[in-house]
Amino acid sequence: MESEGLQARSTLPRAGVDDPRNDAELLAWFPDDVACLDYLDWIRWKDGFTCPSCHGSKGWRMKNGKWWCDACRNRVSATAGTIFHRTRTPLTVWFAAAWHLTSAHNGVSAKTPHRILGFGSYPTAGAMLHRFRCAISHTG
């Protein structure tokens, strides 16, 4: 897929505008990690792919979800430099945790995503919430 394909994705939810109303809608929008990566690509490169190393604009998404820059042959991930960078937790779980965190009226403890999302361990849920809270506090 070439970077021009990102511009044609008008069916994606709009960041800060469209929010899932419930769990079913969240699952419909982001059923798998590919859909989550598409959304991150769209947020990061609204005007099409741009390589962070050489600023080249021609690239292709590889089978592993990373982008290949045609100019410098660099591999780029939409998750690089984000709270999702080098995580082993599926993006669908991250997106669900983000939705639960932002839609909760009384705050969220690490027990909530551990219980609702079925994490293997409580420390993983705590580490995830810590990443979210750090990202939120640093941006505004």
What is the compact description of this entry?
By secondary structure, the chain is mainly alpha-helical. The protein has helices spanning 4-7, 23-29, 33-44, 91-103, 111-116, 122-139; strands at residues 59-61, 67-69, 75-76.
Account of the 3D structure:
The radius of gyration is 16 Å and the shape is globular. It has two domains: 1-20 and 45-80, no CATH class; 81-140. It is built from six helices and three strands, in the order αααβββααα. The longest helix is centred in the C-terminal third of the chain and has 18 residues, at 122-139. The protein is mainly α and 140 residues long. This is ISSod11, transposase. Residues 31-74 form the Transposase zinc-ribbon domain.
Based on the model shown, name its key terms.
mainly alpha; 6 helices; 3-stranded antiparallel sheet; Transposase_Zn_ribbon; ISSod11, transposase; disordered N terminus
Q: What is the element string, with H for helices and E for strands?
A: HHHEEEHHH
In total, how many beta strands?
A: 3
Discrete helix count? 6
Largest sheet: 3 strands, antiparallel
Strand order of the largest sheet: 1-2-3
Helix content: 40-55%
- What is the average per-residue confidence, as pLDDT, rounded to a whole number? 83
Q: Estimate what percentage of residues fall within beta strands.
A: 5-15%
Rg measurement, Å: 16 Å
- State the distance separating the first and last CA atoms: 34 Å
- Structural class, judged by helices and strands? mainly alpha
Low-confidence stretches: 1-8
Mass-distribution shape:
globular
Protein name: ISSod11, transposase
